[in-house]
Amino acid sequence: MILYLLFRLTLLPFLFLALIHPKVRQRLLAEFKYRIYSYDYDVIFHISSEGELEQSISLIEKYENMRVHILFTSLSALEKVKKIESANIKFSLLPVLSFNPFIKEYCVLLWKKPVCFFMCRYDFFPELVLFSYSSYSILLNATFKNLDSTLKRYYYKFSFNSFDKIVLASEHEKTSMNILGLKKDFRVYDFRVDHILKRKKNAQKVLLEYGQLVEFIKKQHDRYIFGSFWASEIRYFEKESFEKTKIFVCPHKLDFNELKRIENGFKELGLRVCVINNVVESTFKDSDVYIIAMRGILCELYTLFETCYVGGGYEKSIHSVLEPFLMGCNSILTGPKINRSTEFDFVKSHQGQIKSLDRITKQIISNEGKLTKTLDMPNEDVVKWILDAKT
Length: 391
Known about the structure:
alpha/beta
């Protein structure tokens, strides 16, 4: 660890050269702006990005009477973290580029030890692992991926041994625990289930604000939704997939260029495209594809569809399949890249009809099928197990 700290220090002079790059400069300025200002906390949650925040939010809410500090790594989570900031919930950005072992604000190892330190998987920076070793700590949504090398197995074992308790993301992860020889107190649960079910309970209320859009969607009998969709995925669909259907597309990115790429991609297939960026009924032109360019309602929209396609499976990895599954979609289709998704395993283990495909055809997308979902609810035993820790 001393060698690691020395290595990080040797990089500091080169940081000034890296500032020429706009993304590096943006990151460094953000770390200065969103550094920790107060150590007046009881509990710390470290999250990587938006996904990990959603996985942790239901547990964060359990600590409403304690002072919570959220430490996050990716700037993509900033806006969502800001929304939950309150008198008892504060946040800061992990000092990655600005790391300095001699300045408290920029070195987690110098921070006051909390009553409990939570990490929601993935970002095992050495300073966070050491902080975990020195604190009472719990790992949430733990996953083991690619244990195919001795170095990776050692890395996982060293990191996971720093936690007092571990919440595994799926039953499948128990096998990896045995492979690594980890003797830890653990449970299996995905806390994102709680958060999504809460959204499902409020979905009808949320969709009231989009009444005209909802009524328009309900009128389309042979309808499908493409959630978290990327323009690059269009080429994997056979043109016949869209015959006599109405496709509602919720893009993963809502910037102008991506929306244009999606629109043009469908038009190149000879399909009529309508972009919906407000809920005025006059904008719902008769089309084959409707691009819903509105943020924050995809999860609720899933309640209106039987079949969905979840994007990302032709990019790095599929996006959330847990959302459509819990929201009521009876058939879920994805691209082939599912290796990083514990949610895919979760849906399959709960009798969900989910398929990972190299290409999407009309025959496949029309094969809806019905299913009965079985969920081990409620999760009060897991929550009690965590809350009984030291808090």
